[in-house]
Amino acid sequence: MLSGRRLDLLDPSPLDVELEDIAHGLARVARWNGQTVGDHIFSVAQHTLLVEEIARRRCGAVDRRLGLALMLHDAPEYVIGDMISPFKAVMGGAYKAVEHRLLAAIHLRFGLPPTLPEETLRIVKEADLGSAYLEATRLAGFAEAEARKFFGVPPELPVRVETDFLKPWPAAEAERRFKERFSKIDSG
């Protein structure tokens, strides 16, 4: 990692996880394998911020634990990249095991349990699917009917929020905004 840390994929240590590495990596990993409109990639960091925004609007107040769970839901991708869901399914258990070990180490590093409560996972998943719907239809060329089939009902967001969050940002902006939001959530 740029921080100088070395992260063992088979036995990741929370001591080797740094927020700067996560933010930097996620800001440079493309969602949808880069098959999106815009001058910049739509990064996993930007996706994460959209997921957190959707959940916050649905739930109202979000406590530190839920906020961090939302911000870290795709954090392993700073190391292993973002794979499209069909490919993850083909890879099966081996991919999931590596992803789970990384996520557990990341959670421990930031004071979360290795495995989150079901209610937290449900909130994260719903917001993640909502974000995927919006990304698919606004950025990746999906028709509304196709997106509903895969991701369900779209979230309702104000136009200004959709406009901001669904225009791909330069990597430096995505990294900065990710770190700022994470810091705000982490400090309570």
TrEMBL record:
SUPFAM superfamilies, sorted: HD-domain/PDEase-like
GO MF term set: hydrolase activity
Protein name per Swiss-Prot or TrEMBL: Hydrolase
Organism: Rhodoplanes roseus
Keywords (A to Z) from UniProt: Hydrolase
